[in-house]
Amino acid sequence: MEITNVTEYDAIAKQKLPKMVYDYYASGAEDQWTLQENRNAFARILFRPRILIDVNKIDMATTVLGFKISMPIMVAPTAMQKMAHPDGEYATARAASAAGTIMTLSSWATSSVEEVASTGPGIRFFQLYVYKNRKVVEQLVRRAEKAGFKAIALTVDTPRLGRRESDIKNRFTLPSNLTLKNFEGLDLGKMDEANDSGLASYVAGQIDRTLSWKDVQWLQTITKLPILVKGVLTGEDARIAIQAGAAGIIVSNHGARQLDYVPATISALEEVVKATQGRVPVFLDGGVRRGTDVFKALALGASGIFIGRPVVFALAAEGEAGVRKVLQMLRDEFELTMALSGCRSLSEITRNHIVTEWDTPRHLPRL
Ligand code: GLV
Asked: Where does the record place the FMN hydroxy acid dehydrogenase domain (predicted)?
């Protein structure tokens, strides 16, 4: 049957993938309350569309950190994509380039920064986990720079891995035919089996739990690349991130895989946007599954959004073609949302085009 929205790839991926792999991609932390809330919170935001505006031409193009892209929909970092499909990150990189948008490569990719660069031109960001061994980090950042990556998305919400119970039950580990390619040769590319989640053990062994704001400054001493701080959920931290030199902020709860019972990212977004006072761009990931979600995020002040699981599930179902289709479907839906809301360019999307539950009661329609 024809696929008509990105969510449909989830069930196909579930059918196709080994249980351990599907569960790893799909699950959130503990009760998975935030996992559901990332979706539910979008559903509680409604539109205030404007009518009788000539929407014959819609322009979705935008600029992120100075790089022109075709739409404000980008690819989030997701780890170990060759578990989903043999082409893994190669397929994702090609699909993102074809769509004229940015791909963020995970530190824990099963393809290296050089391999991804070899797929051809494209604007790419590199997601960074800071290892205890800072020499490893320095080397990796240098390689990413050399491979033409344009920014670092520094994950700041993972001093320890969140508790994902299916990974514990499944004794999740990276299949032995794959490696964390960026760390091959450093003796950090394999994941041992553990009595719980192999990834949680790997993180406990290698990732630096002492990471703090001073390390955001340290990172700027080893690279000129702009740093996006990924994992901000409060106005307080947004302000500190700017002081620490961040070029941008990604409002993220790590796909609800870290601390459970944090708010949906779409609920936290506006507080962060207000705190930044326009000094740096704010992006969002988490729960975006529709063009209407993209519009809602932009109306609340995001400069763009990133999608994670839809890419992985489409990759599992149809490889590169699936990822292309996901990006195309979201593009088409977003364009339609703009047209039906009376917005011809991203700058015409305003806070007044939506109404949230935290707005003044007079705006709230009775449900
Ligand atoms: C990796 O970043 C994960 O959340 O599993």
From this structure: 1-359
Which three-class secondary structure state does DSSP give residue 267? helix
Ligand 1 and 181: CB distance under 6 A: no
Residue 323 lies in a domain: yes
Which mutation among 108, 191, 250 tests ligand 1's pocket best, with the greatest number of atoms within 8 A of CB? 108
Determine if ligand 1 sits within 6 Å of the CB of residue 309. Answer: no
Does 308 fall in a domain? yes
Full residue range of the structural domain in which residue 162 is found = 8-355
User: Which of 85, 254, 353, 363 is an active site residue?
Assistant: 254
Q: What pTM was estimated for this model as a whole?
A: 0.97
Number of domains making up the chain? 1
pLDDT for 303-312, tens place per residue?
Answer: 999 999 999 9
Report the pLDDT averaged over residues 202-213. Answer: 95
Identity (one letter) of the amino acid at 49? P
In a domain, 364, yes or no: no
**Atom 1 of ligand 1 has which residue's CA nearest to it?**
79
Pick the residue whose CA is nearest to atom 5 on ligand 1: 79
- Told to judge if 254 belongs to the known catalytic residues of this protein, a careful annotator would answer yes
Report how far apart, in Å, the C-alpha atoms of 262 and of each of 35, 273, 284, 297, 299 are.
Answer: 10, 17, 15, 18, 22
pLDDT in tens, 23-77: 999 999 999 999 999 999 999 999 999 999 999 999 999 999 999 999 999 999 9
Query: Domain containing 107 — which CATH number?
Result: 3.20.20.70
